């Protein structure tokens, strides 16, 4: 008896086709999504923390300058007499234009166009504005400009300081809120109360932006370190 053998490789069970390997390179995850996520969280935390603050009074119990300025501007715009409004607007116009004045004639025109404010500026000199304007020359122009700016600056500082005193008088330290004081006129108190909302929102936005920036930066750095 004879036996025949078929040559070839021995195979067992189901056969598998050729194996192919993915040659696409591995892409490292980005740290940017981490940064964006932490920025959103940080912004929210910052807003919450700011929302709990009362940003009108500093830790020494004094009204902060920026809030006093806002309350004062609101009072001058909404509650002051027409005469006071004219003087306030005139002071702003003069301060805006005085530095660009080059001749006595230009200064005279600026002051004449804001006569109510000019009368207040020179009110302590015992001279009429007309007399003062007549005596402005090229030689004393610089000195007159300096006097005008200093007088307006002093007046503004006095008004802001007065508003700060009114704010402090109306601040209830125990309840952490404003309540009208007998020494403060209704119109001033109204301006103080009306100024809190927009001012508080501004502070919240500021803290939210700071919180988002800090948290976003930390998240980005952490992503760079831990994402391999």
Question: Could you explain the architecture of this structure?
Answer:
- It is a single chain.
- With 228 residues, the chain is an all-alpha fold.
- It is built from 8 helices and 2 strands, in the order αααααααββα.
- It has a two-stranded antiparallel ribbon with strand order 1-2.
- α1 (32-51) runs antiparallel to α8 (186-226), α2 (65-78) packs across α8 and α3 (82-97) crosses α5 (115-121).
- The radius of gyration is 36 Å and the shape is elongated.
- It starts with 31 loop residues before the first helix and ends with a helix.
What labels describe this entry?
63% helix; mainly alpha; single chain; 8 helices; elongated; 228 residues; two-stranded antiparallel sheet; disordered N terminus
* Count of spatially separate domains: 1
Average residue-wise pLDDT: 76
**What percent of residues adopt helix (DSSP H or I)?**
55-70%
**Roughly how many Å apart are the termini?**
69 Å
- Give the tally of β-strands: 2
Q: How are the strands of the largest sheet arranged? A: 1-2
Low-pLDDT regions? 1-13, 42-52
Quickly describe the structure.
With 228 residues, the chain is mainly α. The protein is 63% helix and 2% strand. A two-stranded antiparallel ribbon has the order 1-2.
């Amino acid at each position: 008896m004879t036996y025949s053998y078929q040559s070839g490789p021995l195979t067992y069970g189901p056969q598998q086709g050729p194996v192919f390997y993915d040659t696409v390179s591995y892409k490292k995850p980005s740290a940017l999504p981490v940064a964006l996520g932490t920025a959103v969280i940080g912004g929210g935390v910052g807003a919450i923390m700011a929302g709990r603050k009362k940003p009108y009074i500093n830790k020494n119990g004094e009204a902060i300058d920026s809030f006093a300025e806002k309350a004062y501007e609101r009072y001058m715009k909404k509650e002051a007499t027409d005469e006071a409004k004219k003087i306030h607007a005139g002071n702003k116009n003069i301060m805006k234009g005085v530095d660009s004045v080059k001749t006595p004639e230009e200064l005279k025109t600026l002051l004449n166009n804001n006569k109510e404010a000019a009368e207040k500026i020179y009110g302590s000199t015992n001279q009429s504005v007309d007399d003062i304007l007549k005596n402005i020359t090229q030689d004393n122009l610089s000195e007159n400009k300096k006097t005008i700016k200093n007088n307006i600056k002093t007046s503004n500082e006095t008004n802001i300081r007065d508003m700060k005193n009114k704010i402090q008088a109306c601040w209830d330290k125990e309840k952490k809120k404003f309540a009208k004081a007998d020494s403060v006129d209704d119109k001033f108190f109204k301006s103080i109360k009306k100024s809190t909302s927009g001012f508080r929102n501004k502070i919240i936005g500021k803290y939210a932006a700071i919180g988002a920036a800090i948290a976003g930066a930390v998240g980005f750095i952490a992503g760079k370190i831990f994402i391999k």
